[in-house]
Amino acid sequence: MTGRQRSRAGVSFGVKSGMATKPGSRPKNEFVFFDVVYEDGSQRSNRRVPAELLGGLEKDEPARGFIIEQDREIAEKSGRAPLAIKSIRRAGAKVKEKAR
């Protein structure tokens, strides 16, 4: 070699290295995933909301505000108007049928 230091496999290692971690060493339940249906009928699945926002007396209601803010930022960057949200539910949650 010519005296310069090379990292393994062309990967540079810094303070935040991209090295693999052991399974289970990552904190679980960091995010809760939601499916969002908009007024125009479109749907976005698995929208991430920090779990720390949820669980109080409001239950999942803070997720709506968080997702609305995300949509506002996305719309601002894309130059489009944000869509109105029709409904939000946790991803994987079963839909309750209405009693007649």
Task: Outline the structure in words.
The chain has a three-stranded antiparallel sheet, with helices on one face. The protein is built from one helix and three strands, in the order ββαβ. It has 100 residues and is of the alpha+beta class. The relative contact order is 0.17. The chain has a domain at 27-90. The model has no long low-confidence stretch (mean pLDDT 80).
Defining traits:
alpha+beta; 100 residues; 18% helix; three-stranded antiparallel beta sheet; globular
Say how many strands there are.
3
Strand content: 15-25%
Low-confidence stretches: none
Oligomer: single chain
What is the number of helical segments per DSSP (H or I, 4+ residues)?
Answer: 1
Approximate helicity band: 10-25%
User: What Rg do the Cα atoms give?
Assistant: 21 Å
Task: Give the end-to-end Cα distance, rounded to a whole number of Å.
Answer: 78 Å
Q: From N to C, what is the helix and strand string?
A: EEHE
Structural class: alpha+beta
Biggest sheet: strands side by side, in what order?
A: 2-1-3
Task: Give the arrangement of secondary structure elements.
Elements: E1 31-38, E2 43-50, H1 61-78, E3 85-90
